[in-house]
Amino acid sequence: MSKKTPLVTWVKSLYGPGKQFTSGRQLAFATGKNMSIVSDILNSGKGSVETVLAIAEAVDFPKIQALVIAGLLSDDDLKQANIESGLTPDEIDLLKEFRSLDDVLQTVAISQVSALHVLLADSVDTESSSRKKSPK
Questions:
Q1: Which of 13, 8, 7, 21 is nearest to 109 (CA)?
Q2: HSE (side-chain half, CA atoms, 13 Å) at 34
Q3: pLDDT single digits (tens) 14-73
Q4: In the structure, what pLDDT confidence band is assigned to residue 120 with cuts at 50, 70 and 90?
Q5: CA angle at residue 53 from 47 to 54, to 5 degrees?
Q6: Model pTM?
Q7: SS3 string of the chain?
Q8: How far is Cα 122 from Cα 126, in angstroms, rounded to an integer?
Q9: How many Cα atoms within 13 Å fall on the side-chain side of residue 99?
């Protein structure tokens, strides 16, 4: 049974039908680490710094943001180290709002954003292919 933490929600959002990795096993393989790292995160709700960074690397996700999602770094840690998270104030507010949602709503929100990315990518692909076909 999986724990309900922001890290679990994030990891679950990285694989599934229509995504780069169709299973947690594929995601784990892409990290080059232990094949059980995804299931370990889902079961414990936690991940080590090394594990979170390996997953972020595998999915080309900002590492600082991944550590914040995992609860391994806080906004105070970033301020104290004078590290910019790369997020705008609006993005930070959205992240705080997202974290305040229950797990079901977080999953729905991630699904909707993922679907939007697919629609946008399809739109760009359609637009570029129609340009290629258009006579000049």
A1: 13
A2: 11
A3: 999 989 999 999 999 999 988 899 999 999 999 999 999 999 999 999 998 899 999 998
A4: confident
A5: 95
A6: 0.60
A7: CCCCCHHHHHHHHCECCCCCECCHHHHHHHHCCCCCHHHHHHHHCCCCHHHHHHHHHHCCCCHHHHHHHCCCCCHHHHHHCCCCCCCCHHHHHHHHHHHHCCHHHHHHHHHHHHHHHHHHHHHHHHHHHHHHHCCC
A8: 6
A9: 13
Enumerate the β-bridge partners of residue 21: 15
Dihedral angle, C-alpha 60, 31, 16, 102, nearest 10 °: -80
Encoded tokens for 55: 């997953």
| Entry field: residues in the chain | 136
Token pair of 25, please?
């096993």
Whether 52 and 40 have beta carbons less than 8 Å apart is answered as no
Q: Which two tokens stand for residue 36?
A: 């059980």
**Residue 105 main-chain phi, psi, to 5 deg:** -65, -35
Distances (CA, A) of 105 to 23, 38, 62, 93: 22, 22, 23, 17
